[in-house]
Amino acid sequence: MTQAETHATNPCSVARELMQTSDLNWLLHRAAQRFGEAMDAAAQQHGSSMRAHLVLAALLHMPGRTQLSLGAALGLDKTTLTSVLDRLERHELIVRKPDPADRRVRIPEITEKGHALYAEVLPAVQAVECELLGTLSESEQETLRGILQRLTGSDAGPPAGSCI
Fold it and tell me: Any residues with CB less than 8 A from the CB of 162 and at least 6 apart, and which?
């Protein structure tokens, strides 16, 4: 197969060759895509999605947030979050209750069924993470986490775009 044929069958091959060693943004984006796709596939094996799993995690670990606050914390626009919450509510994984301070505002809460699904999906996505990080030593994994935490930390400025 010629180089031109290889490029035609793999649309990312040209970009990979040009940028894989020099463009940090491209490398981070491709790594995030790889992780996201693999983790979403694992979540889908349990009838969920990675986006739904992360919303359930946020509801579990940050209860009492309004939909607006939840969307801001996850970097999701109102329309996307509403769609995810609608799906979760249809499957009885969450309920939306009125905010006592403003009955027009809703506070999503995870249900027992939502807790169970979260607990079922969590080991699957953790296994994917372990597999993908398996090419790194424990020390390299710790360094990578530390660097990414600093790059995405609170002193890095306000979040832009969806985190899921």
Answer: 74, 75, 76, 77, 80
